[in-house]
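Try this one yourself first.
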């Protein structure tokens, strides 16, 4: 009974394998491969095009895997019937056949019963091009985009034809534009038609892409050469004059390397020659004792040269004669002058536009830094300008605002909601802290600037230590919402982060909000009255003491909001405020004490000057800040009251 069961199982397995083999033989991809069997078996670069075209035209889903396996030498042919399979080792001398249509195993076979298809490099190149073209014409736009990205990362000559072939049927406008641009880039590097290359080069004259410059710069690569006369039919970049564009020593070294002049004898070589020709205490008729001087050594060497023992020494006159008898020049690697001329003009045009955009990028950086300084200084402009209080703890209010934002984010995981909550909460916290500081300390020190400075400096140190005790010394993250990630990219030269744009917008909002408060509200009217003449304001029923408290609280609250904004891109530590206190005071003093518009102009001046100095010395920002301070000191000498001088108590009137 057991014997009959085994026979039945073997028969069933044989039937199953037979059915799979029949399915493999009857599949569309297998039929197509069999129709082109002879060309596949004896594939060459000149005969393979028809097979590739037939496979691509079939639009069968298995085509890509078959082409990839063929290119990678993973396609096999069974000798008995010529069918094609994928295969994987199944034992020492056997392989497991896998159907090229279904990807399912169809049985095992001995190693001697199958042949591995091994296309040469030319055939593999054609197949690789077909695979690229296959991906570039894929119905899925995402797959086509992936193919373009792959070409952009590693362009090859074979990609050019595939790109051109896929352009005709491209329906997606964005992908078509990418394909056209990439086709022009590949045309510059790989096309055999020089007219087409020139046209492609000229089309990039206004393009700021790094890849465009990467394609154009190699066209102007040169090789330095020397010849008796300037060769004809050669694309010469420049002729060189020894002692000018090329040093005299380097020019003669080129002659020696080219075998056009004898090498100079070095001092060490001369010494070895003299030692080798020492006879009876003499060298070339010169006593050994006299060889301590360079002149005598040269005389001895000349004597040996006259005897024909050694080659003659090259003199300065010989060098001059050799240099005059030859031409030194830089030769373009690219042989067509029309191409190098077009590339040179295009790169010159691009350089002009890059320079303009670098100025624009630098201006945006300066504007961004100015908005940060304005936010940091606007609260100080109110307290210092209106009240005349030198508050060295202003930076700590910025730091408190940043930590308020951090605490809120620990309680509210949603970064957008947490920032919306943190901004007013930071204002409230620092407003309360400012009011408390004014009531407890500042109010007792009015008109005593030195004592005020020392007291607020001590408070600054104390606040830093309190924060260290609570949060530690490690920097804390204040994460921006996802919609603030990344940058606004105008081109390959100009870009600005969304966080800095948000800070700029916040600065503009506070500028107009403060102008509204100071010019359109009762509080603003009272603040301006106390600023201009506190005694007259008091006689009109205004309480200067209350106004001073609210003004100090308002300035401190704005510093807290600035802390949240600054913390989005800076490290939130106990020293955060100390990094901005100096710039805040400079901004207020340069702009004009107590004037909102002056603070804005001061922030703009400092931001642009600092970024301009950093542009000249990008590796040393500390030096840039030092130069900026020197500039401000000089500026104050000529305009001690700032850009916009304020009349009133803050100005000392």
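Now uncover the answer:
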């Amino acid at each position: 009974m057991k014997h009959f069961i085994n026979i039945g199982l073997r028969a069933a397995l044989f039937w199953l394998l037979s059915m799979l083999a029949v399915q493999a033989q009857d599949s569309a991809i297998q039929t197509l491969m069999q129709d082109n069997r002879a060309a596949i078996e004896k594939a060459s670069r000149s005969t393979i095009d028809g097979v590739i075209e037939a496979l691509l035209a079939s639009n069968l889903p298995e085509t890509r895997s078959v082409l990839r396996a063929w290119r990678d030498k993973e396609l096999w042919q069974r000798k008995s019937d010529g069918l094609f399979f994928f295969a994987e080792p199944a034992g020492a001398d056997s392989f497991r056949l896998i159907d090229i249509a279904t990807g399912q195993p169809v049985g095992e076979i001995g190693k001697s019963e199958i042949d591995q298809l091994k296309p040469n490099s030319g055939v593999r190149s054609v197949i690789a091009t077909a695979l690229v073209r296959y991906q570039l014409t894929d119905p899925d736009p995402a797959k086509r985009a992936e193919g373009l990205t792959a070409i952009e990362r590693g362009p090859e000559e074979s990609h050019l034809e595939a790109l051109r072939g896929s352009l005709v049927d491209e329906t997606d406008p964005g992908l078509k534009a990418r394909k056209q641009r990439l086709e022009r880039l590949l045309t510059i590097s790989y096309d055999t038609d020089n007219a087409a290359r020139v046209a492609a080069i000229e089309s990039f004259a206004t393009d700021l892409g790094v890849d465009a410059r990467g394609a154009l710069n190699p066209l102007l690569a040169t090789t330095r050469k020397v010849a008796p006369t300037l060769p004809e039919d050669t694309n010469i970049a420049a002729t060189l004059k020894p002692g000018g564009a090329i040093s005299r020593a380097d020019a003669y070294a080129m002659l020696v390397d080219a075998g056009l002049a004898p090498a100079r004898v070095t001092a060490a070589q001369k010494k070895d020659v003299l030692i080798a020709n020492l006879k009876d205490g003499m060298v070339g008729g010169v006593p050994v004792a006299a060889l301590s001087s360079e002149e005598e050594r040269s005389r001895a060497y000349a004597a040996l040269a006259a005897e024909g023992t050694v080659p003659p020494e090259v003199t300065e006159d010989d060098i001059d004669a050799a240099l005059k008898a030859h031409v030194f020049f830089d030769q373009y690697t690219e042989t067509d002058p029309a191409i190098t001329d077009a590339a040179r003009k295009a790169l010159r045009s691009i350089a002009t536009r890059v320079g303009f955009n670098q100025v624009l990028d630098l201006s945006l950086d300066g504007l961004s830094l100015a908005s940060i300084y304005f936010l940091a200084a606007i609260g100080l402009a109110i307290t210092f300008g209106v009240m005349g209080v030198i508050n060295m703890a202003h930076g700590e209010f910025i730091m408190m605002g940043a930590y308020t934002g951090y605490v809120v984010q620990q309680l509210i995981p949603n970064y957008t909601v947490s920032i919306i909550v943190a901004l007013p909460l930071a204002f409230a916290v620092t407003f309360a802290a400012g009011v408390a500081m004014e009531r407890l300390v500042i109010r007792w020190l009015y008109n005593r600037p030195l004592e005020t400075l020392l007291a607020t400096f001590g408070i600054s140190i104390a606040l830093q230590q309190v924060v260290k005790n609570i949060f530690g010394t490690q920097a804390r993250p204040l994460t921006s919402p996802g919609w603030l990630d990344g940058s606004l990219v105008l081109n390959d030269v100009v870009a600005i982060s969304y966080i800095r744009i948000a800070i700029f917008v916040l600065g503009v909002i506070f500028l107009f909000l403060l102008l509204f408060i100071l010019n359109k509200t009762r509080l603003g009217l009272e603040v301006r009255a106390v600023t201009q003449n506190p005694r007259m304001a008091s006689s009109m029923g205004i309480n200067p003491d209350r106004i001073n408290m609210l003004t100090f609280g308002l300035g401190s609250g704005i510093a807290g909001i600035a802390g949240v904004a600054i913390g989005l891109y800076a490290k939130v530590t106990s020293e955060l405020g100390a990094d901005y206190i100096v710039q805040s005071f400079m901004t207020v003093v340069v702009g004009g004490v107590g004037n909102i518009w002056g603070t804005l102009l001061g922030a703009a001046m400092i931001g642009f000057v600092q970024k301009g100095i950093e542009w000249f010395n990008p590796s040393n920002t500390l030096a840039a800040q030092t130069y900026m301070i020197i500039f401000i000191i000089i500026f104050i000498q000529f305009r001690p009251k700032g850009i916009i001088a304020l009349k009133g108590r803050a100005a000392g009137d």
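Discussion: Residues 11-25, 648-653 have pLDDT under 50 and may be disordered. The two ends are 122 Å apart (CA to CA).
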